[in-house]
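Hello, quick one for you while I still have it in my head. A protein chain has come my way and I'm curious about its shape. I'm sending you its amino acid sequence along with the backbone structure tokens. I'd be grateful if you could look everything over and explain what you see. Here's the protein in full, and shout if anything looks odd to you:
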Amino acid sequence: MTSLDGLSHVRLDGGVLRIAIATADNGTSLDSTGVNQGTTALRALAAGEIAAGAVLLVGDGGNFCAGGNVRAFAGADDRAAYVLGVANELHEFVRALAAATVPVVAAVHGWAAGAGMSLVCAADVAIGGASTKMRPAYPGIGFTPDGGMSWTLPRIVGARKAREIILTDAILDAEEAVRLGVLTRIVGDDDVQAEAMTLAQSLASGPTSSYAGIKSLLARSEESSLSDQLDAEAASISAAAGGPTGREGVDAFVGKRKPDFSSAR
């Protein structure tokens, strides 16, 4: 196994790969160190060099992520080249998140703006607080989206609503974000990270191969016909039934006991 020593923004906690994508040090704007270390850790996870059953995205500071560091954009000698580099780093992280076969949970406290909102949309589950707010933020500085927002948001809220949200630079409060499906749950403001970690740890102890199959099916569903998706589901559920995780789940159900999926990995 590869150690995560030296990765200041990444740690393993109870089977959960915790990645801080923003810190108080830079006003909770997107932290390039966290993004790059997160990409490194996710690639190590995919390669089997580290073991984790879930990924947790957090912001260490007053917000989940307040967006890109606009002051850094302004100070760059070549703004176009600088922003391209930031976007490319973020996009490698988003690609690594999308490739993760384990569940990805976002703990969304405070603001999730710009790239922060994009990363909320990239998660499988997003838990917010009563005061959580989201905003595309790109039109406000004359930019266009990055971090996959132009791809993920229409798939969450629908194409027309996504156009309205991004073009008008709409601010979504927590209740509206849950109604639209951008957030999946609201808890108390002080409980966001604890609740998200509890969920991530619960998922990490669950049927990992089942989650991988579920994520694979969901990922291909957008491009598949119903008939093709039915064939994929049949193949996937058959493989699950014959595998150790599916065997343990069925045997536990019949035996009226709680399944121990850790023993089936």
Summary: The chain has eleven helices and nine strands. The mean pLDDT is 95.
